[in-house]
Amino acid sequence: MNTPRLQTILKRFPKQHILVVGDVMLDQFLWGKVNRISPEAPVPVVEVSRESYFPGGAANVARNLRALGGRVSVLGIVGDDHAGEVLRNLLTEQGVETEGLLVDDLRPTTLKTRVVAQHQQIVRFDRERVTPLPVTLENVLVGAYERMFDSVSAVVFEDYAKGLLSESLLARLHRMALRRRKVTTADPNARHLLRYSRLTAITPNRMEAFAAAGVASREPAADPLKDEALLQVGKVLLRKWKPDNLLITLGEYGMCLFRAGKKPHHIPTVEQEVFDVSGAGDTAIATLTLALASKARAVEAAELANHAAGVVVGKLGTATCSPGELL
Hints:
Number of helices: 10
Shape: globular
Strand order of the largest sheet: 5-4-1-8-9-10-11-12-13
Helix content: 25-40%
Structural class: alpha/beta
Oligomer: single chain
Distance between the termini: 11 Å
Strand content: 25-35%
Radius of gyration: 20 Å
Mean pLDDT: 92
């Protein structure tokens, strides 16, 4: 892809309205330093100097889409609590439309607290309640989806196995998207594999892809195009999910794009120093979706997703990529 073509695609980003549906959460970071071991137990004592909050899960996908210049709405569930209020305020400050954040009095907002000392994560605490949505709340969510739907060019389904997306709900939402010929993408979860079918693009990582295909995981080959197990998984998932595009992310080996009737296309990783891989998948699906909605060809969209993920792994914590950084 040359620079004029890239600039043409990027100029279309602000014209796209993307709806992110899925498990939103709040990431809390406690930053500090370790100078001693506790006398009470053989654990480090972290002297906390500051704390920060970031949107997590599906909310981080929305944040990434907004950082790339797209118009973004998010549809998800928060609790009637301080974490939910913080998350809503953060997204609003970043320009994400939050009318679709519905409140469930019976569950807390998913909150992940990471303690980081000397740029090293010491421990993580998760506060959440993983239960299916009540039927009444699911119907409210579908109603909100229908009200937002006419103005959006693409829908991202983000499943973090926290209880929002179910087989029945995904089917209801995706049927509407298919009828309106919207771009649809999904990031599956290995612990909660849903029956995806006929989406524009699906972006599992290697572990998720092998789990979904029912193939035993094994060591990757240095050249993904000679990785017989990976190629088998690609074929299985194309038959099983019938997506237009299957983009399997491979960490240090880049990404591999599978399409029915075409040879797999390997996109090598962007060489750089890696600080933190958390959130790279969110950046990848955000960039891929926005590029596809902006009429990028599949290979172009996958290449942009690969480069955007390369930007964020060079940053500490869940991060985003701007159009300038992508250029």
